[in-house]
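dumping this here before i forget
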Amino acid sequence: MSSVRTWFITGASRGLGALWTEAVLEHGDQVVATARDTSALKPLVDRFGGRLLPLDLDVTDEAAVDAAVRAAEQRFGGVDVLVNNAGHMLTGAVEEVGAEQARAQMDVNYFGALWTTRAALPGMRARRSGRILQVSSIGGLVAYPALGIYQASKWALEAMSQSLAAEVAAYGIHVTLIEPIMFPTGLAAASPQAEPNPAYAHAREALYAGASGFVPGDLAATSAALLAVADAPNPPLRVLFGTGGLDALRTEFAGRLAGLQEWDHVSRLAQGNPAGT
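structure:
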């Protein structure tokens, strides 16, 4: 793609968001970069000038999200690529997690992405083009102990995005769920944790044991992967970032199907014999 595109990237002040913002600017495109505090983006403003519009934004504030997307459209004419990257990872067993922690997790990871997606869609539909890149996780496809609420937020994002993809394909809009495996972003250290209950020490141990099977990927390499997805004429609905995920998913889905097959007699029991069939 040779024309200059406008990207709207949330969570742009650190981790993947910061790396991707810089990479997109180096690629020659324009970026509206949002974060709760955009002061960390000043070096990029100094370097790229008017091609970067930093906006302080709390993605859980629907009205503020709408205003930010309007500002992006006024500055650059429209949003071509939306990257919903803002999020945090609440660690804790289901019983350990507090009500406010659970709501905050859903507000940022799911509702934040929902609000930005809804705000960007009218312009994309009008232009009959657009890319929506949802940063999910391998935890959007499987669920590990001690991460249930975090992964619930990603499973919600997955379902919404898969439905959305079918709804907007007619308007030339592509939706892709990016599923990072394991990268040293500092996400866990910067995220809240539930108050540990000794009764669930085994759950945390199981989580760490499972994570040891993945080799951390190179953060910098994800930028080329992101651009490859954004440039693809027919991007996938889902793409794994990193290795080891396919094996984990083969095990997960095979186990899921085997369990359903084993209990198919109960499925048939529940079906009954309607109309004598």
